[in-house]
Specification:
The chain is mainly α. Helices cover about 75% and strands about 0% of the residues. The radius of gyration is 27 Å and the shape is extended. It is a multi-pass membrane protein.
Length: about 350
């Protein structure tokens, strides 16, 4: 526990209470105080991404590979996220510095400190949970993928195409030959790792700033409530003016964040919607097997054939479905249930995640 505590403490920065994890993480991956050399890895990711686009456009299965890219959209979105980060670096620095400065000031106020501390704790907890989930997903999926490729190569001397998740421009079909398969799979593994590496940085920064902004809104509400409690009329007047100036500044920072995050949020919603529609569409098409038997030309066939058609139609009438955790099956009804659960989680988080004093 001492080692774990030291590890967690390493990702804290007293100058950035809510954004400490994000700032330390950015420093580790060299995205803080950028120099020209720090653009090398993002540029390599960009080249790999462009390679995939060219592969899709020059293949004879454009639709298939395009859908594959949407299904693995979590990894490809890093290109957009990095472009947005680099192009809005000044806005990010202004936002992080302002939020951190006001939080440090508010921690000196006995009335505001409990509110700020709750949001700081909440922000750090969410950031850690998100990072563990992202890297855990990457390690489980791609660790298993690499392991299965090695087993197939050493056993059958070729691999199943389903283990090629990304499609790079490659001089030779990467399905056979150790010196051909292993470099390709290594490139795929590194591409996914770098995607998670930079995607976590951008997403944790977005989440941390949004939580910090939520904290500032609650702090401002508390400031308005206490503006007229003490002091002379002149002091109360200045308190109200100070609260209003803080409100205007919060609106300014919120507009900056909206400009930065709006494109990424839209792409995330688009990818999630397409993936959900693909799942529902695929499963809906698998429910027509029984009726398809009767679509064959069985009417004028012999009794033996008609009997076999009857037996087969009665035995293949089982619907092919998949369960999604606590949900009975994945279909349109499931989609509506998921939306309801999302709203329920939202209400629960609003009421219990950061309780008021």
């Amino acid at each position: 526990m001492t080692i774990f505590g030291a590890f967690v403490a390493h990702f804290k920065d007293p100058k950035y209470p809510s954004m400490g994890f994000t700032v330390v993480y950015l420093k580790l991956i060299r995205l803080w105080q950028l120099k020209k050399v720090h653009y090398i890895v993002p540029c390599c990711i960009c080249i790999c991404f462009i390679s995939q686009i060219l592969y899709v456009l020059t293949s004879n299965r454009i639709v298939h590979f395009s859908l594959n890219m949407f299904q693995t959209g979590f990894f490809h979105l890093v290109f957009l996220k990095m472009a947005i980060y680099f192009s809005n670096l000044d806005k990010w620095m202004e936002t992080l510095n302002w939020l951190s400065e006001v939080e440090i000031q508010q921690q000196k106020d006995d009335n505001l400190k409990p509110i700020v501390d709750r949001y700081i704790k909440y922000s750090n907890s969410v950031a850690w949970a998100f990072v563990i989930a992202c890297y855990g997903t990457w390690l489980f999926n791609y660790g298993e993928n690499v392991l299965m490729v090695i087993i197939q190569m050493e056993t059958y001397h070729e691999i199943d195409p389903t283990y090629i998740w990304f499609f790079f421009l490659w001089p030779k079909d990467p399905l056979s030959g150790r010196w051909n398969v292993y470099p390709y799979i290594l490139l795929q593994f590194l591409y996914a790792f770098c995607s998670v590496l930079y995607s976590v940085a951008f997403t944790s920064m977005c989440v941390s700033t949004m939580i910090a902004m939520a904290g500032q809104i609650e702090v401002l509400s508390e400031m308005f409530r206490r503006a007229l409690d003490d002091g002379t009329e002149e002091e109360q007047y200045r308190n109200l003016i100070s609260c209003y100036k803080r409100y205007v500044h919060i609106l300014y920072i919120q507009n900056n964040l909206n400009d930065i995050m709006s494109p990424t949020l839209f792409i995330h919603l688009l990818v999630a919607s397409i993936n959900m529609s693909l799942i529902i569409f695929s499963l809906a098409n698998s429910e027509n097997i029984s009726s398809a038997v009767y679509d064959s030309a069985w009417v004028d066939k012999s009794p033996r054939i008609r009997r076999l058609v009857y037996i087969m139609s009665s035995t293949v009438d089982k619907r092919i479905i998949f369960n999604a955790g606590p949900f009975n099956e994945v279909n349109v009804i499931t989609y509506v249930q998921i939306l309801k659960v999302t709203v329920s989680f939202y209400k629960l988080m609003c009421e219990t995640s950061v309780p008021r004093s």
